Structures are given as C-alpha cells and as structure tokens.
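Need residues for this backbone.
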C-alpha cells in the first residue's frame, strides 16, 4: 500500500515478540489438561482392570458351574442306569417268586390230595377193622 503523502509504501508493523509471560497461561492450561487426561486415563485403566477381574471371576464361576452341572448329569445318568438295572433285577425276582408260589401251590394241592387219600384210606381201614371185630 502507498502512503498518501509521499507515495512510498508504509513501513510494516514490527512483529510482536512473544515472551515467556505470554505463554504461561497457555502452558499452565496445557499442563492441567495433560494432568486431567492422565488422571482420566489412569481411572479408565483401573476401571478396565476391575472389569477384567470381574470378567475373569465370572468366567471361572461359569466354568465351575459347568463342571458341577456335568458332574450332576453324569451322576444322574449313572443313577438312572443303576435304577434301571435294579428294576430289571426286581422284575426277574418277582417272576421267580411267582413261579415258586405256583410250584408251592401245586405241591400244596398235591399234599392236600394225598392227605385226603390217606384220610379216606384210614377211614376205610378203620371201617374195615370195625367190621372185623
């Protein structure tokens, strides 16, 4: 630009020299922000560690729960098989006892018939002795 009086360009304003005092508020603000960010990062890190700890304990608990459930399942399956086997054995015993009862009933009937025959024979013998006297 030209100066209106002599046509010569106006001198450029002298650059302002920054001093340390000019930068102190900026430096202080940056330091506070860094400290706040560091504090926030530290809190987030602690929170993340706590969350990981909770997740690890939860995972361990879930694994233990799974093991206990698996043991119960195995135990129940074993008991189921054992009970099934015992039921089958008891059913066989019932059939065997029924056969024995049937045999005993048959033997009892035979004994009754034999006793009746013997009683009839005795009655005949006594009758015959009575006739012979």
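Answer:
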């Amino acid at each position: 630009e030209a100066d209106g009086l002599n046509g010569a360009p106006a001198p450029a304003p002298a650059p302002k020299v920054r001093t340390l005092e000019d930068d102190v508020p900026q430096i202080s603000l940056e330091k506070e922000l860094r400290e706040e960010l560091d504090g926030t990062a530290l809190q987030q890190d602690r929170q993340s560690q706590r969350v990981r700890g909770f997740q690890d304990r939860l995972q361990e608990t879930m694994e233990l729960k799974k093991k206990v459930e698996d043991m119960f399942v195995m135990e129940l399956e074993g008991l189921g098989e054992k009970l099934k086997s015992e039921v089958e054995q008891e059913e066989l015993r019932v059939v065997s006892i029924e056969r024995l009862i049937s045999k005993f009933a048959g033997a009892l009937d035979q004994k009754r018939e034999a006793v009746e025959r013997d009683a009839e024979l005795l009655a005949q013998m006594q009758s015959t002795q009575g006739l012979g006297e």
